[in-house]
Design goal:
- The protein is an alpha+beta fold.
- Helices cover 48% and strands 16% of the residues.
- It is built from 17 helices and 13 strands.
- The chain is flat, with a radius of gyration of 31 Å.
- The chain starts with 30 loop residues before the first helix and ends with a helix.
Amino acid sequence: MTTRRYKTGLDRREQMVLPPCLDDYICADNLARAIDAYVEGCDLAALGFTHTLAPKHGAGQPAFDPADLLKLYLYGYLHRVRSSRRLEAEARRNLECIWLLGGLVPGYKTLADFRKDNAKALKAAGRDFALLCKAAGLYGGELVAIDGSFVRGNASKASIDTRSRLEKEGERIEKLIEGYLAGLDKADREGAEPPSEDPALKDKLAHLRERQADVQARRRRLEESGEGQFSGTDPDARLLSKNGQVVAGYNVQIAVDAKHKLLVCSEAAQDGNDAAQLAPMAVAAKELLGVEFLQAEADGGYYSQAQIKACEDVEVTAYVAIPNKSRLQREEGRFAREDFQYDAQADRYLCPAGQSLVPQGRQEKRGEVYIHYAARASGCQDCPLRAKCLPAKTPYRQLNRWEHEAVVERHRARMQVEGTARMRSRAALAEHPFGTFKLWFGWTHFLVRGKTKVGGVLGLMTLCYNLRRAVNLLGVEALIALCRVRAAA
């Protein structure tokens, strides 16, 4: 009896009378089956995908079904494969992709064009799956956490022009040209052989003048754009800076529902900070969830009194960390603004010494209206706490109160009671998706250019993240059943 040390497989040259069915290779709980069920249940025409109508018979090869291309992209992004060339390779060799596409192998150009031409449709697909999750009861609809992260675009830092960068580059080229011309003048005065006849020198001067003309053209282009930055590679990419980190790309914003950490909405912003993103993200989340009231949590980078008021106006209760702007004053032993108590009935501020600051008029700053309050100079002059309140040459104390300061005071009162717990909750909700994006999906940069296409890829990533979460929560078979019920309806 022969003893076998290893298991043996099939002989590759052996002919089989009944070859196995391709469907048998894909188990019932395979993620590919969930992808297939979702796409088959979508109304791709309503989402805006191109070539959704059957083409008329004519010469040439028929087009690929957009459903097949969408399936391949979903499978690829879920498995860290985003390049169109690599997706083409997967369609040839990956058994799950062969099952998804029925053996079709679209070329990389076809795949790249599909992603480029269907950017808005891909974003709509991300929203469509979020609505499917909402119908399945996976959203709580009570609390969302909002956060942002810089993601590199398909443009280098050097490709983005700013006014200061162009001015420095222009000055440097001008000095080089002046240096060469000064050398020519000196040689002419000394009667030496004129270096202007040197072909190498002529080429250098010509090259510098070309660079000078290019800088001037880029400066005109920047002025015509009306923006502070412009990239010739990706016109919508921006130089973003935070905590010493400089990225050429986009500020990706997300809103995460608290019930199962599913993404509600996402957006690619161009701002280098988050100060103007709170209300737009909260409103978008509230609209998709279809709720009357919503709570939104965010870190201190989102703190803006105008944004907090905008949230309150649409029934969104904001919980935003309040930056400590009075730390330096307190370290110097001086009074901060918070030490002055407002008396709403008398419409005045009371200083720590008990003196009153009364309204003196209204003034506008950066589009916002402030009420100016001031104390009497005679009261401040002899005040025993003057050294802690005023510089030596300032005669009296003044304060400005925003006309909607009551909104900020209500927010401050909420944060004094719940601030610590809310910020812990925010970190647990909003940090997790970005970690999944960058570490699990390997998504650290965009492969496309332009805000519209970037938004499409972001929609695709949102769909993939929520699809993975839904499979973990419901299971593949339950998700398939849900997709089929919706398709039948």
